[in-house]
């Protein structure tokens, strides 16, 4: 049976070369499929566990909170302090806040970039990228920062609700 590449093969060695080129290029052509599949699985796994954290192919974690940018910033700064990630800089703009932090561990340097985007007065999208060097991304640390920020915001809401229920219900004299 003739090879599907036989039309471009003129000699036996040329045919081997063409076949080898096709075989070697096949893994590079299919690389994008792995990223798409892992993104779909990652989004499904996060939704199934109720984490609500979304990821891009580049391991950038996103979550939207129903809270103001200022409230999310306060919660996020508490989380960074608790996790012992010192804040290197904070830049404010009309659209939100950009925070850069890093790990105190010199052996495993980790750079953390957090963007808080104001979607409305009471809705904020938080984007977290945790980088180890130029190529490696740490999606688990990014997800943990998002999840802990959410918990911090929930604690703040409960504390505010408790404070409001402690007020007298009747008219004050």
Description of the structure:
This protein is an alpha+beta fold and 173 residues long. It has helices spanning 12-48, 69-82, 139-165; strands spanning 54-55, 61-65, 87-93, 96-102, 111-120, 123-132, 136-137. Strands 1, 2, 3, 4, 5, 6 and 7 form a seven-stranded antiparallel sheet that branches. Helix 2 (69-82) packs across helix 3. It starts with 11 loop residues before the first helix and ends in an 8-residue tail after the last helix.
What can be said about this structure in brief?
It contains three helices and seven strands, in the order H-E-E-H-E-E-E-E-E-H. It has 173 residues and is an alpha+beta fold.
Percentage of β-strand residues: 15-25%
Category from helices, strands and their pairing: alpha+beta
CATH architecture of the domain at 53-139: 2-Layer Sandwich
Total number of β-strand segments?
A: 7
CATH topology of the domain at 53-139: TATA-Binding Protein
Secondary-structure element sequence? HEEHEEEEEH
How many strands, which pairing sense, and closed or not: the largest β-sheet? Answer: 7 strands, antiparallel
Whole-number mean pLDDT? 76
| The CATH superfamily title of the domain at 53-139 | Kinase associated domain 1, KA1
Regions with little confidence, pLDDT below 50 for 5+ residues: 35-50, 162-167
Q: Give the termini separation.
A: 101 Å
Rg of Cα set: 25 Å
The level-1 CATH class of the domain at 53-139: Alpha Beta
Number of helices: 3
Shape: elongated
Helix content: 40-55%
